[in-house]
Amino acid sequence: MPYYKKEGVIPMKVKFLGHAGFRIDDLVIDPFITQNDQVKEKLTLDDAECNIICVTHDHIDHMGDAYALAEKNNATIVAVAEIAFQAQKDGYNAEPMNIGGEIPVGDWKIKMVQALHSSPSGTPVGFILKKGDRVIYHAGDTGLFKDMKLFRYHNVDTAILPIGDRFTMGVEDAAKAAEYVKCNTIIPMHYNTWPLIEADPEKLKEKVKQDVITFEPGETKQL
Ligand code: NI
Ligand code: MN
After folding, report:
1. How close is the Cα of 141 to the center of ligand 2, in Å?
2. Are the CB atoms for 72 and 65 separated by under 8 Å?
3. Is 153's pLDDT higher than 80?
4. End-to-end alpha-carbon separation of the chain, Å?
5. Tens of pLDDT along 99-143?
6. What is the dihedral of CA 89, 30, 146, 166, to 10 degrees?
7. CA 33, CA 38: separation in Å to the nearest integer?
8. Of 15, 26, 126, 185, which has the fewest CB atoms closer than 10 Å, so is most exposed?
9. H helices within the chain, ranges in order?
10. Cα–ligand 2 centroid distance for 214 (angstroms)
11. Which ligand gives the minimal distance to the CA of 21?
12. Which of 156, 162, 130, 204 is nearest to 59 (CA)?
């Protein structure tokens, strides 16, 4: 049974902003809207109203609208030290942190974890986002790594995992990641934005026992 349907679980309002971008209640992660050809006709910055903006790394397809949203919403950017200190210098609210750290921000507890990828500044990361008894792991851009097994100790209910291959894990490794993390629900991301990262989430559904939830860009689900 999907975790969010279990008794006593407070659902979260999850909106897919395209690519790796999500709005989860008042938190946005990796906003890439105005420069994303797949969603820019359909979505605006108003779709990503938020108090908190988590950025996994400063590739454009993740950092894209972080500054614009921070300014528009007077929101706080949460990112690895190098990105966050630069954001502060540029005049934005930002919470610097690094891998292994967990900090309270608004209603959330935000833990930063490693990701296997590259980035212009600092190092790429993932986030374990905790609110009440809900725990969402957003992997950022990453390949599969065995230490994802450690994340199960955070009781992750939902894992947002890249499946587009080439720049990140593909479907097969995402299935293993879900097993390592021991999540209940998987939300695939970082695929079909461009031809180079075409992937089929139905193939993931065939490989895993978890619920796989897919979204159209701009779609909101209570999870
Ligand atoms: Ni990247
Ligand atoms: Mn990316």
Report:
1. 6
2. no
3. yes
4. 12
5. 999 999 999 999 999 999 999 999 999 999 999 999 999 999 999
6. -110
7. 8
8. 26
9. 60-63, 66-73, 81-89, 171-181, 201-207
10. 18
11. 2
12. 162
